[in-house]
Amino acid sequence: MNIKILTPEYVVFEGEVSSVLLPGKNGEFHIMKNHAGIVSSLIGGKVKLFVNSIDEAYAKNLTKENEKDSVFSYPIKSGVVEFNHNKGIILCE
Q1: Is 29 exposed, middle or buried (0-12, 13-18, 19+ CB in 10 A)?
Q2: Of 85, 2, 7, the residue nearest 49 (C-alpha)
Q3: Keyword Transport on this protein (predicted)?
Q4: CB-CB neighbours of 76 under 10 Å
Q5: Which parts of 1-93 are beta strand (E)?
Q6: Are 41 and 64 a contacting pair, CB within 8 Å?
Q7: How would you write the pLDDT of the chain (93 residues) with one tens digit per residue?
């Protein structure tokens, strides 16, 4: 599935991921391939991307969570996510 993370200043990440873990008001929630359409607000925390590989252009924006798995994170203060038809946009600050 394709995920795009945007801030007012730049594109943090755009690419294929296996899944994404997001900080929601009622706790973290996981979006995986073929997830039902959703629009949700996000609170401060980490957006975690589960990927096979990452483009060098976006690697500088993300923190690798551990050496064993391909999990990268990006800290946010707040935001909103829209996901539908295996495409998601995360607008955050």
Answers
A1: middle
A2: 2
A3: yes
A4: 21
A5: 2-6, 11-16, 19-24, 27-32, 38-42, 45-50, 63-64, 71-76, 79-84, 87-92
A6: no
A7: 999 999 999 999 999 999 999 999 999 999 999 999 999 999 999 999 999 889 999 999 999 998 778 999 999 999 999 999 999 999 999
Tokens 């929630």 locate to 29
Pairwise CA distance, residues 1 & 33, whole Å: 6
Alpha-carbon gap, residue 29 to 86, rounded angstroms:
16
Which residue in the block uniquely carries the two structure tokens 């064993």?
A: 68
Write down the residue that tokens 């252009």 correspond to: 57
Tokens of 25: 């008001």
